[in-house]
Amino acid sequence: MDLGIQLLRVAGSLALVLALLILGLYVVRHFSSWIKKTGDNEWIQVLSRHYLDPKNYLVVVKSQEQVLLMGVSPQGIQLLTPLDKPTGVPSEEV
């Protein structure tokens, strides 16, 4: 009888801990969109990304009124060239 009560307590405690973990995960996922809000007046906007391989890619970035082509690799970020007019990007985004 005593073993049955202890086993029931352990199972109940485990169920409570799992329920709290699932609830915490739900709350974090649900409210993380509030934390990650991106405004329209960001100083830096990523307009496009092109992956060359899993670790290296090109990025077209808009900062204030400049549009820049940058290379990203495990060694760091390198400015490749400023762009005059981006191709394929609507003019209202630039």
From TrEMBL:
The keyword Membrane applies. It comes from Desulforhabdus amnigena. This is Flagellar protein. It is found in: Cell membrane; Bacterial flagellum basal body. NCBIfam families: FliO_TIGR (TIGR03500). The lineage of its organism: Bacteria, Pseudomonadati, Thermodesulfobacteriota, Syntrophobacteria, Syntrophobacterales. The chain crosses the membrane at residues 6-28. GO terms for cellular component: bacterial-type flagellum basal body; plasma membrane. Signal peptide: none annotated.
